[in-house]
Amino acid sequence: MSELAPATILACAQPSELVLLIEQHGARLSAPLGASALHVLATLAAPLADEEQRALINSPPVKSLLLQLGAQLSGGGEADAEGLTSILWAIGALRLADSPLLHGLLRRLLLLASHGVVRPALFLVLVQACARLQLLSGGVGAAVLAHARAQSAALSLGEMATLCRALAEAMGTAAAPLLRDVVEKRRADFETVRDRKQALHGACSLLVALAACPLDPPVPREFVSLLLAALHAHRLEPHSLELPRLAELYAAVHSLDADAAVCGALHAELAGRVQQFDAASLGATAEAMLSTPALQPVVALVRQRQMAREDQLGAEIGAANDELTLCRLMASGMLSPAQLCKGMEKLVQLVLASADPEGRVQLLVASAELQPVAGKLLLAVPHLDALQLRELVCAMATVKFHDPRLVSSVCETISSCLHSLSSSDIGKVVWAFCTLGLAQAPSYARMMRSIERSVGTFSAELLCQLANAIAPLTRSAACSRLLPKLALALSRCQPPPPFDSLLSTARALCVRVPLPEGLLRHLLGVILSEVSGEGEGPMAGSLSSAQLVDALWVFVRHVPLLAQQARSSLAQQLPPLIIRLLHLLTDLSQVPSDALSHLVLLLARITRSQPPLLQQIGVQVEERLARGGLKLAHLYCIAWGLRELHDALMPSTPVPPLVERLLAEAARRCRAEDIEQLVDALQAVSFISARRPWKLLETLIQELRTKAASLEPKQLVNSIDSIARMRLDDHALLEALEACLDRHLERGVVHEAQAAAALECFGAVQYSGRAGAIVHKLFRRLSEAPFLQPHSLASLLHGAAQLRVAPAAGTDVSFFFGLMQQSALSPDWADWGTILWSLIELDRADVAMEALQAIDAETLEGSPDTHTTCTFLWAVLALRQTSHPLFTRLVNAARQLNAMAMLPSQLCLIMECVLMLKLEAAFLNVALPSEMCTRASAVWQAHQQRPIADHTAITPQLLSVSKCLEALGVRYGLNVFNNYLIDAVIPQEVSGSANLALLLHPPNHYTTARGLVGSVQLRSRLLGKLGFSVVDIPIDMWDGLRGDEAKLHALRELLAPHIKSPENVGRIDPRQ
Question: At the topology level of CATH, where does 6-213+225-232 sit?
Answer without folding.
Answer: 1.25.40
